[in-house]
Design a protein that fits this description.
This protein has 202 residues and is an alpha+beta fold. It has one domain (32-195): Gcn5-related N-acetyltransferase (GNAT) (Aminopeptidase), CATH 3.40.630.30. It contains 4 helices and 8 strands, in the order ββααβββαβαββ. The protein has an 8-stranded mixed β-sheet with strand order 1-2-3-4-5-6-8-7, sandwiched between helices. Strand 1 and strand 2 form a beta hairpin. The radius of gyration is 16 Å and the shape is globular. The model is unreliable at 2-21 (pLDDT under 50).
Length: 202
């Protein structure tokens, strides 16, 4: 799913990877939480609210996209929720809902999304936080939570993201999630990668 991930904090999703897991993962991903955010499995019903979250044209400076209309976003979400036509691949998408009060935002509002294309032990990930919610650490918090969740719930052991070389904010999020830059490039974007392990059992 090489989605048009949108700008302000983003890594691009999707690559061909040989699957190694024996049990298929569910099409709909399990939810997860972080200190301030609930990551909720994507549903088409979120399209109208998410269109407002993604409405700032500045988000698209590195992706050459444009803000989606609600109807177009709903159609995209319907395709994503239906899942990949490749049975060995999972398109996992979550919207980010603010759970904690602070900095003027209302608890319960959507602030962005994270997504992962999962094949076997590898996932290529992306993150987007809308302009009004940037500068509060939400993207880094969500990316760290996503990495941990993919390791525990998805059996993922390698993370990949593609980031524009001038996108310092996205690079900082990748670092926070434990990824590091490689010497590989695709479509003008640097490949970032990390190996992940499950936390030790208590």
């Amino acid at each position: 799913m090489r989605k048009g991930a949108v700008g302000a904090v983003v890594g691009r999703v999707g690559s061909g990877i040989v699957p190694t897991t024996t049990a298929p993962l569910p099409i709909t991903p399990p939810p997860f939480t972080t200190a301030r955010l609930d990551a909720l499995p994507l549903e088409p019903a979120y399209a109208e609210e998410m269109a407002a979250v993604l409405a700032d044209p500045a988000l698209y400076g590195f992706t050459r996209g444009e803000p989606p209309a609600p109807d177009a976003l709903r159609a995209r979400y319907e395709r994503q929720c239906a899942g990949s036509p490749d049975p060995g691949e999972r398109w996992w998408n979550w919207v980010l809902r603010v759970r904690a009060h602070g900095n003027g935002e209302m608890a319960g509002e959507l602030a962005g999304y994270v997504q992962a294309t999962v094949r076997g032990p590898r996932a290529e990930i992306a993150w987007v936080v809308g302009t009004p919610w940037q500068g509060r650490g939400y993207a880094s918090e969500a990316a760290r939570g996503l990495a941990a969740h993919l390791a525990s719930a998805g059996g993922v052991r390698e993370l990949v993201a593609h980031i524009h070389p001038d996108h310092a904010a996205s690079a900082a999020v990748a670092v926070a999630a434990g990824l590091g830059p490689t010497e590989e490039w695709e479509d003008g974007e640097r490949r970032w990668a990390a190996n992940v392990t499950l936390p030790p059992m208590p």
